[in-house]
């Protein structure tokens, strides 16, 4: 019988010492992580939840590598992230928009290529389902000025000026990391399906209880009453959100037709 493991990361703030005094305060990201873990548990996954100070690069990569060591062909990983998204210049040249999308983890930004590298550690036959409720997340499993959201809601993005300041401070670190990541091969890559909160050039709204994307997802899921496949799930979530925040469906590797045709969260 297939096994399912899940990792849920929710950051309501980041370490100001790592981000030049900015704490990135948000309201609903920890709730998102807890609620997605509840969905996963009910579907038969074994969940791990990392909240705010636990959401460091080392802890996230450690949990993903632990899961990679346990899951085999036919099994499934669910990874969810709620927090800020960011972008850093891609000075190694493999991104069409010349930007690497990032997850703004507690201690530093985690490049999309880093997340992709961790997913490549899994056996090629493992199904990987990724949900990202953050800004700039449209292709954030791949190798602008901040403004308020609708009704004044906060957006899950690091301010552009802060992003630029931090990149200038850490330029050598990110350049070396980008060069290192480009050296990794992609042989035997597992099929990964991402549904993200928005496109790479858009912002994702925070909320009082859940982020706008996670709230829409939970309503569509309806405690498991939803009966469509992944593309139907994405379409139904998209219909609940404004045109300023359009969820993306993106695949890497070669997810099998059987995987794509399953009901979401099927172990």
Q: Structural class, from secondary structure content? A: alpha/beta
Radius of gyration: 17 Å
Mean pLDDT: 89
CATH topology: Rossmann fold
Characterize this entry briefly:
The chain has helices spanning 29-42, 57-70, 112-119, 160-182, 212-221, 230-239, 257-260; strands spanning 4-10, 46-51, 76-82, 85-89, 99-104, 109-111, 127-133, 192-196, 248-252.
Task: Describe the protein's architecture and organization.
With 267 residues, this protein is of the alpha/beta class. It has a single domain (4-260), classed as Rossmann fold (3-Layer(aba) Sandwich). It is 31% helix and 19% strand. It has helices at residues 29-42, 57-70, 112-119, 160-182, 212-221, 230-239, 257-260; strands at residues 4-10, 46-51, 76-82, 85-89, 99-104, 109-111, 127-133, 192-196, 248-252. The termini are close together. It holds the Pfam family Peptidase_C14. Residues 246-255 have a biased composition (Polar residues). This is Caspase family protein. Residues 18-251 form the Peptidase C14 caspase domain. GO terms for molecular function: cysteine-type endopeptidase activity.
């Amino acid at each position: 019988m297939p096994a399912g493991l899940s990792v849920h990361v929710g950051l309501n703030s980041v370490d100001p010492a790592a981000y030049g005094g900015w704490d990135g305060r948000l309201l609903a990201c920890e709730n998102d992580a807890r609620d997605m873990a509840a969905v996963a548990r009910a579907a038969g996954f074994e969940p791990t939840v990392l909240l705010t100070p636990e959401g460091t690069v080392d802890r996230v990569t450690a949990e993903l590598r632990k899961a990679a060591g346990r899951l085999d062909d036919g099994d499934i990983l669910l990874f969810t992230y709620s927090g800020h998204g960011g972008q850093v210049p891609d000075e190694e040249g493999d991104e069409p928009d010349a930007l690497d999308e990032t997850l703004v983890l507690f201690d530093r930004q985690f490049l999309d290529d880093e997340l992709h590298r961790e997913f490549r550690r899994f056996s090629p036959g493992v199904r990987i389902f990724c949900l990202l409720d953050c800004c700039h997340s449209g292709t954030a499993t791949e190798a602008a000025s901040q403004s308020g959201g609708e009704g004044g809601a906060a957006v899950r993005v690091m301010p552009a000026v802060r992003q630029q300041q931090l990149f200038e401070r850490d330029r050598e670190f990110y350049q070396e990391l980008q060069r290192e990541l480009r050296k990794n091969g992609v042989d035997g890559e597992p099929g990964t399906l991402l549904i993200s909160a928005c496109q790479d050039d858009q912002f994702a709204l925070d909320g009082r209880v859940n982020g706008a994307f996670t709230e829409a997802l939970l309503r569509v899921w309806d405690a498991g009453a939803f009966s469509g496949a992944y593309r139907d799930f994405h379409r139904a979530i998209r219909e609940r959100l404004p045109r300023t925040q359009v969820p993306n469906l993106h695949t890497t590797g070669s997810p099998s037709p059987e995987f794509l045709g399953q009901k979401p969260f099927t172990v």
